[in-house]
Amino acid sequence: MKSEAKIPARGWGIVWIAWLAFMVANLSNFAFGVILPDMRNDVGFGLEMAGWLSAIAWLGKGLLTIPIICFISKGKPKTVLFSIFVILGVGMLIQGLATNVTMLFVGRLFVMGVAAGIVSVLVVFKIQWIPKEKLGSINGIEMFTGPAGQMLGTAAFPMFLAMMSGWREVMIVMGIFALILAAAWLFIAKDNSANEQQTYEKVPVLQPLKEALQYKNTWILALAWPMTSLTWIAVYTFWPTYAVESLNLSITEAGMVLGLLPIGSAIACLVSPVMAQKWGYDKPLIVASGVVLPIAYYSLMLTNNVLLLSAATFIAGYAAYNFVPLAFTTLYKTDMSPRAVSMGTGFIFSLVGLGGAAGGALTGWLGMQYGLETALSLTCITPGFFAVLTMFLTETGWKAEQKKQPQILEQEHA
Questions:
Q1: Is the pTM of this model over 0.70?
Q2: Which residues touch 354 (CB under 8 Å, ≥6 apart)?
């Protein structure tokens, strides 16, 4: 199914500003482990406090996304996103200037607390400016920015540190960059005049959420998706320790193997929308992720061969993001209002964030009780529940839509 519809230049400008902001937020979050030793020495705190600083980012993402999106029920999405970009920049500046742990907590809460809101509020602009048949590819590029930020945070951040005088300077530069994006947003972001009145009509705060929750796919994705984020964060946080202590890998080898997770994810974000568009079906690819993930993750516990571990990690990273752009696109392929799609996206993101927070906390507790191998092995089970739940999704691929057309025409002529 091919289309000649094109994305306007202003549409590209709008999404790229938001994507760059989202990438910087992820870079800041996933670089935390790299800068942690210097941060601990500089500010002065222990490992337990480091764990809480890690968790606050995911708790903020889980708890603040819905309240942020509620603002678009009463105000303009352009203003909401401008505020998010400013908060993002301020959060990074606070971390760069931090003299105590409280400032680090506030800074990390600001950055990741608003990060998911970027993608959720941007939904309104994508519906205005992006042709419907191109939304799958656009969502793929959008989701690519998350793993790209993770790759930069784990692989390239040491180079940023080497080019500057320390982690503080890097945080300050990223904060300034976020504020520059906020200024650019004011000039570039504009509403599609055809949808402006509909977009800004004030409605009760919870009305878009109520509308989004009337659709089965919203509930299924909100319940299923956290099953994968739980395992993702568990592996990202604790597998390197397990690899060093139990598989006798060096920390360099463990880092190299783990670095293939976001690489696989980034590739999946670009490839899966193309596959779905050519195939014409979304749901089989979504379900397949839940089938592959338990096997790929558990394989990380079975060998100390770096080549085999690298292959398993790449497959796990690919499967973990293979479904992401397709799952989000299912909400666009309904008759929901733009605000309802935005709120539904935010609702899903909130539970995904809580799933990530649970992954770290649960695996840490299980590791203390039964050892890391048992803890990580148990978390490998949860993506299987994702596969089971997503089997009940309503298919939204273009072939399924074509099959519905004759039925709709028959009903109209009946």
A1: yes
A2: 58, 59, 62, 63, 226
The tokens of 215 are what? Answer: 């659709």
If asked whether residues 172 and 43 sit together in one domain, one would say: yes
Closest Cα partner for 322 from 225, 192, 195, 187? 225
- What CATH number should be reported for the domain holding residue 138? 1.20.1250.20
Helix ranges restricted to H, 247-305:
251-258, 260-279, 283-299
Q: What is the pLDDT of residues 13-71, one digit of tens each?
A: 999 999 899 888 888 877 776 677 778 788 887 756 766 777 777 777 777 777 776 76
Closest alpha carbon to 140 in 228, 272, 27, 4: 272
298 and 320 share one domain: yes
Q: What is the pLDDT of residues 266-300, one digit of tens each?
A: 889 888 888 988 888 889 999 999 999 999 999 99
Count the domains in the chain. 2
Q: Name the band, by pLDDT with cuts 50, 70 and 90, for residue 328.
A: confident
Residue ranges making up the domain that contains 339: 203-414
Identify whether residues 207 and 242 lie together within a single domain: yes
List the one residue out of 222, 242, 10, 270 whose CA is nearest residue 126: 10
For residues 283 and 370, membership in a common domain is answered with yes
Phi and psi for 85 in degrees, rounded to 5?
-65, -40
The structure tokens 């002065």 sit at 44
- The burial class, CB within 10 Å (0-12 / 13-18 / 19+), for 260 is buried
